[in-house]
Amino acid sequence: MPSGAEQLSATTGTGAAITGCGAITGLGYDTASLWNGLVNGRSAIRRWLDKDPRIDSKIGGDLSDFDLSEYLADVCSDYPPDLTRKARKLLRSTPLSGVLTAAAGMQAWVDAGIGESDVPAERCAHVCAGHNLGHAYISENLKTFEEDPEYIEPLFGVHHLDTDVVGVTCELLGIKGPSFMVGGACASGNIAIITALGLIRSGMADVVLVTGAPVAQDSLVLQGLVMIDALCTGTFDDEPERASRPFDALRAGFVPSEGGAALVLESAGSVRDRAASPVATLLGGACTSNAHRLTKPDQSGQERAMRDTLTTARIAPESVDYINAHATSTPLGDATEVAAIKAVLGSRASEIPVNSTKSMTGHCLSASGVVEAVATVLQLRHGVVHPTINQEKQDESLDLDFVPNAAREHKASIALSNSFGFGGMNSCVAFGAVS
């Protein structure tokens, strides 16, 4: 049986191995729980627990009740004791976004089997997808400041910065190579993955942790999204699990979620030296701009992102046999993406599964690309595509195979995952299965 490095080299000469995954979403606090929820078509959407009752957004993927102590005692019970002790110390005063990011990163690191002596710390990097992560934390401290400035959080000057999320994860895992944030709205996750691949291709790092940092939801920001008609409001407030319904005729806007994920990427040389076992390969990716700031999706920009990904990954369109769609459950967005997929893949578009992870997780915003990358890797590993739930009324204008309501066996070899963001940002990444 070929080694992990041989499998990687045989698949692509320019890609990277994926050796570890981690995820924390409303479906559960590890990848096994995420997979169980996805394959069984379970929704993570519920009523917000702690938002201002005046706002029109009433539902989402709420992780505000995440308990670090319970998480470390449960999910991390068999992790190296020194690592969990370090996590408990570093994360006890860290805001929610940093806690969830570091926790997902720790999962992926352990899943990849990277010990302290396996890879020089200077050859390990961290690319974190996300920006504007601390709205909720800043808002809470602003309320305190208005009452008495001396009683804001003692470490507010550090914690309010997005880079604190990078720093705390690097300290937890001992990462000393290039480490930074990548921001691209809802395309951030894929752009971070593409950037990480660049670090490996350039020889600047042997191992790169890619994290998708959750945006802790804030009442002010949620109301702002309502006012631009982006969110699903009113229609399914009493049935939250039915609200996120990509491609369905009753879709009425996206459902925001708190959730994060992580991947470990490695060069072929690192995989060989560690005798690691890749779970999938990252073949390539690309991103484009629509050259306009409005939230209206642009089919030509999406097409270019997908075509450029196929080119950089050296993949023929006819080789693609699964797509994880951006598919946020907005009327125009879903229709535009379907048109772009059909334009790029031609007649084959109707022959392959095109599903939406967001139908169950909700939209994890800047972390969504990494969450959906993990979902894509899990589907490649298991030979099963998860359903797009809430397919109750067909939109006659959308005619692809959306894997409606029930998972099915499908052994894909090459998968694409799309992520598109406000500001006219489009991205796509390609993954390959390993035997």
Q: Would you write up a description of this structure?
A:
The protein is α/β, with parallel strands linked by helices and 435 residues long. The chain folds into 2 domains: 4-281, 3-Layer(aba) Sandwich (Peroxisomal Thiolase, Chain A, domain 1); 283-432, Peroxisomal Thiolase, Chain A, domain 1 (3-Layer(aba) Sandwich), CATH 3.40.47. The chain contains 15 helices and 14 strands. It has helices at residues 4-11, 31-39, 68-74, 81-91, 96-111, 135-147, 156-159, 163-173, 188-201, 219-227, 268-274, 299-312, 331-345, 358-361, 368-382, and strands at 16-24, 46-47, 59-60, 124-129, 179-182, 207-212, 260-266, 280-289, 322-324, 354-355, 384-385, 408-409, 414-421, 425-432. The strands form 3 sheets. A 10-stranded mixed β-sheet has the order 5-4-6-7-1-8-14-13-9-10, sandwiched between helices. Strands 2-3 form a two-stranded antiparallel sheet. A two-stranded antiparallel sheet has the order 11-12. The longest helix is centred in the N-terminal third of the chain and has 16 residues, at 96-111. It is globular. It starts with a helix and ends with a strand. Mean pLDDT is 94; it is low at 1-5.
Outline:
With 435 residues, the protein is α/β, with parallel strands linked by helices.
Q: Which characteristics define this entry?
A:
2 domains; two-stranded antiparallel sheet; alpha/beta; Peroxisomal Thiolase, Chain A, domain 1; 15 helices; 435 residues; globular
